[in-house]
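Researcher: I'd like a candidate sequence for this fold, 175 residues long. If you have to choose between options at a position, lean toward the conservative one.
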């Protein structure tokens, strides 16, 4: 994890270099109740790496979304998270607020071109199991943004068909 200002529109490079003290909470085991900082990112110590032992192991930062910041994970970590979320018996081991955070972060980083949309769409496939309102709200908000971006392109019709399929699923599953 490296501290860097997140902007949806890149600046022209004349911006002020900002640095914050950021309290870091994290888990690799699924204990999301520890919301006291275990580490602080600051100007001198602004890089955090968490080695993972297994291919399907993952780390999630910012337990219960206690601090306002986005987290950019590497592809290997995203795939481990996606594996857990797409398992109908395990997705709830990641609390609702962290599922919202994962959805919002993946959509935001995809929108600015830092994360491949394929990873985001693989993550969003887990929603077929989701029963909570907030993750659905986050996903639908992101889909609206994508819909706006695609409106004047040939891919818009394909995207709308997939959204109609999702809408049908929502209506018929009593989510």
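Model: Candidate sequence:
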């Amino acid at each position: 994890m490296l501290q860097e200002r997140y902007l949806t529109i890149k600046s022209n490079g004349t911006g002020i270099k900002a640095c914050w003290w950021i309290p870091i909470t994290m888990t690799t085991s699924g204990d999301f109740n520890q919301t006291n900082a275990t580490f602080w990112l600051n100007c001198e110590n602004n890089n955090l790496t968490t080695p993972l032992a297994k291919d399907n192991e993952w780390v999630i930062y910012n337990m219960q979304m206690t601090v306002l910041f986005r987290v950019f994970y590497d592809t290997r970590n995203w795939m481990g998270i996606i594996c857990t979320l797409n398992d109908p018996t395990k997705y709830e081991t990641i609390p609702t607020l962290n599922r919202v955070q994962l959805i919002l972060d993946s959509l935001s980083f995809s929108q600015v071109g830092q994360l491949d949309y394929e990873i985001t769409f693989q993550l969003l496939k887990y929603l077929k199991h989701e029963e909570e309102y907030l993750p659905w709200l986050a996903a639908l908000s992101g889909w609206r943004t994508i819909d706006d971006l695609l409106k004047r392109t040939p891919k818009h019709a394909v995207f709308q068909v997939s959204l109609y399929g999702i809408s049908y699923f929502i209506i018929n599953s009593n989510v």
